[in-house]
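Board work, copied verbatim: EKC/KEOPS complex subunit BUD32
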Amino acid sequence: MSNAIARILPYWNWYLRVPRLHGKFFTVRPNVLLKAPVRIGRDQTIHTRPNVEAHYTAERRLLERLGSHPRIVKYLGWYATFPTGLILQRANEGSLQSFLDSSRDQITLAPRRKWFLQTIEALSYIHSRGISHSDLRPDNILLHNMDIQICDFGGSSCEEMGVSGYGLPDSGFYDPREAKAGVSMDIFSLGSVLYTICTGHWPYREGQVSTELSLPGEMQRYAELVDAHFAAGSFPKVDGLLGADIIMGCWTHAFNCTAEIERAALKKL
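↓ predict structure ↓
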């Protein structure tokens, strides 16, 4: 793929506790993307980023371990020609976050219920394969044909494979009481994702869209607010929400595993 025909797609970088694994997305053919560990120079030339290439190799191994599953981004292989990287199917509705931001007032209960169940199904499958996602949030959840697919395993871990991504979720999806990645942190993050699916906004961000967090200092202010609440064991009200007890159970560590959450959700919803 030459520089002339590669079309660089936007890649949003959020505030994180650890450095984000910077990369770029290229369209290699219709509905197929290349995710590569590169940066683009001012002259539009492509430069490798050796310090993050190992994380892409780890993500490749994790995607191969996960295999084909309807709730996981479709991995199509490894692009061996420069710039090397992951070949992925493009999700035709973009991220869950962008869809919620643009359409949240028009989303009915039926799709919210479907996404609620599908997100639990996805994380339960990931954990069944011995993988901790470590950065579960609506930006890392895609909508393809209006169905959920989880993506971005660059910071994920799998003890059996010796892969330690050292990732941590963003504030709002991070439990300050836990402070380490793993199944328990993923379950806490799941609670915030399910809350966002039901309400259209992040915990303690009522009436605001996620893009406002890009304003100077806004993410830092939000992080301080939500981290203080969560550290004190204080959570948003969930009365009347779909699956309210499941959301709260994720936040309060009432569940031992995602398979237990999946059983509860299928029974109650």
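The chain is about 35% helix and 15% strand.
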